[in-house]
From TrEMBL:
This is tRNA-(Ms[2]io[6]A)-hydroxylase. GO terms for biological process: tRNA modification. GO terms for molecular function: tRNA 2-(methylsulfanyl)-N(6)-isopentenyladenosine(37) hydroxylase activity. PANTHER family: TRNA 2-(METHYLSULFANYL)-N(6)-ISOPENTENYLADENOSINE(37) HYDROXYLASE (PTHR42637:SF1), TRNA-(MS[2]IO[6]A)-HYDROXYLASE (PTHR42637). SUPFAM superfamilies: Ferritin-like (SSF47240).
Amino acid sequence: MLGLKLLTDPRWANIAEGNLEEILTDHAWCEQKAASNAISLITNNSEYEDLVHELTAIAIEEMEHFKMVIDIIKERGYTLGRERKDDYVGQLMKFSKKDGSRNMAFIDRLLFAAMIEARSCERFRVLSQNIQDKDLAKFYHDLMVSEANHYTTFLNFARKYTVDVDVEKRWKEWLDFEGKLIQSYGSKEAIHG
């Protein structure tokens, strides 16, 4: 369904489970950044009423996920660490087209968001199926479903609002780029690391 070119090695879940405080902190900040991205898309594209409505719901849901993760951190006696730089997301941002039409930049920002949601969904699936902690396995299964919905929302808006972009062709370019990029990740206690 997601079209990802390379799936995460299930052994990454062992790395994540080996340092839950670190993976949960990274995850919390990923949720906060996802909310901020949705808000940014709303701010820059407020003329699209349905997009404003849907992305407001996503921003709220992402902040609810942020709260859920920090609640888990607190319950387990961990500390929410400082925000981490996400090199994976930074590389995706560099791939985004910013020098074309306003519509091209808008569509690429939607595809950027869809790409992150797709990979997050896939990583949450790996965690839900491979970690020993049953409570966290269920938690990540539930979030996997949510991320899949976000992925389709962003991709569908790109398809709906394109003016001068062949969305299917550009999405394939995103998938190809991400397939090469992700080969450098999967060895750290980070959602995209």
